Amino acid sequence: QVQLVESGGGLVQAGGSLRLSCAASGGTFSNKAMAWYRQAPGKEREFVAAIGRSEYSTDYADFVKGGFTISRDNAKNTLYLQMNSLKAEDTDIYYCNGRITTWPWGQGTQVTVSS
């Protein structure tokens, strides 16, 4: 059974930074394009950023506007999201999962940006 565990969220002031991590176990992480998503209560989950099986192919939602960087360490089965210049509207629960096909969703990590 694949398990995804997100961490690194927290409370930060607007303009601050956070680095999210996603540890994957039980699956072939290195063969899978991965992505970060976010979801606010009562809203649909939305795409944030994606990365191919290597680090050479990345894709970002328009609202990221250069503030976020996705990366991965296949040796550690871990996905990262560096978030800089955070805004209040970035407050959400952040999840990681596959970009094309998904595994069971993890608990996510809460990011709260105070203005």
Which tags fit this structure?
mainly beta, four-stranded antiparallel beta sheet, globular, six-stranded mixed beta sheet, 50% strand, 115 residues, single chain
Description of the structure:
With 115 residues, this protein is an all-beta fold. It is 0% helix and 50% strand. The chain is built from no helices and 10 strands. The strands form 2 sheets. A 6-stranded mixed sheet has the order 2-10-9-4-5-6, with no helix packed on it. It has a 4-stranded antiparallel sheet with strand order 1-3-8-7, with no helix packed on it. The model has no long low-confidence stretch (mean pLDDT 95).
Short recap of the structure:
The chain is mostly beta strands and 115 residues long.
Q: What does the secondary structure layout of this molecule look like, with pairings?
A:
Elements: E1 3-7, E2 10-13, E3 18-25, E4 34-39, E5 46-51, E6 58-60, E7 68-73, E8 78-83, E9 92-98, E10 109-114
Parallel strand pairs: 2-10
Antiparallel strand pairs: 1-3, 3-8, 4-5, 4-9, 5-6, 7-8, 9-10
Largest sheet properties: 6 strands, mixed
Task: Write down the secondary-structure element order.
Answer: EEEEEEEEEE
Question: Strand arrangement, largest sheet?
Answer: 2-10-9-4-5-6
Helix content: under 10%
| Total number of helices | 0
Count of extended strands: 10
Q: How large is the share of residues in beta strands?
A: over 45%
Shape summary:
globular
Q: Compute the CA-based radius of gyration.
A: 13 Å
Mean pLDDT: 95
Span between termini? 40 Å
Q: Which class best fits the helix and strand makeup?
A: mainly beta
Stretches where pLDDT is under 50 for at least 5 consecutive residues are none
